[in-house]
Write a structure and sequence with these properties.
200 residues, alpha/beta, Rossmann fold, six-stranded mixed beta sheet, 30% helix
């Protein structure tokens, strides 16, 4: 998978592996694909996170476990001084929580309040995210953009997906005895790497 429009993100050669950053850059095939934590970062990074918080994600602790993943991601973003954008998809329309601000510990408070309910405006969220990223690329052409989508993939139609032009990862949180398995097709349509949360 491509590492982004501006090349592979800068990283240290050794030390603690930066797993969220590595996975957001695509599936690692070798040691060269692993990113390590830096003490200081000159590269400007943006992590855009889209969280599907529709009613179906309440089942089988799906959203609860996704919160654990998000807490780790927020902590890594804070330590790496990455900028965060956070968009939730629930109810009637997607809602921005943060747009390009430096990751702050205040996101943990938002995470504790996050609940699931309503419909799944995930396609609207993806479309809005695509427009926002395109505008931001013009404003910050050297920014390293990464995308993380957390969803159970329970959409009626994935035929007309937006072209996001952003490398990243889709984490499938669908659980239960009957799985529709739509998240993998969604990831392929968005040209994102795919992982089920149980494999992370």
């Amino acid at each position: 998978m491509e590492k982004g429009r501006h090349g592979k993100a800068r990283s240290a050669r050794q030390g603690a592996i930066n797993w969220p950053g590595t996975l957001l850059g695509g599936r690692p095939q070798s040691r060269e694909d692993l990113l390590f934590h830096l003490r200081s970062r000159a590269a400007h990074e943006l992590w855009l996170v889209i969280v599907d918080a529709s009613a179906s994600t309440r089942r089988h602790r799906a959203l609860t476990d996704a919160k654990g993943l998000l807490a780790q991601l927020f902590d890594d973003a804070y330590r790496q001084r990455a900028r965060m954008a956070l968009l939730t998809a629930s109810g009637q329309a997607p809602k921005w929580q943060v747009q390009g601000l430096k990751a702050a510990k205040g996101l943990v408070g938002w995470l504790e309040q996050l609940g699931a309910g309503g419909g799944t405006p995930l396609l609207a969220a993806l479309t809005e995210a695509g427009h926002w990223l395109a505008v931001r690329r013009k404003r910050y052409p050297t920014e390293q953009q990464r995308l993380l989508v957390i969803t159970d993939g329970r959409l009626k139609d994935v035929a007309e997906l937006p072209h996001l032009e952003c490398p990243g990862l889709l984490v499938d949180i669908e659980r239960g005895p009957i799985r529709l398995g739509r998240a993998q097709a969604l990831a392929a349509g968005l040209q994102l790497d795919y992982r089920h949360i149980d494999k992370l």
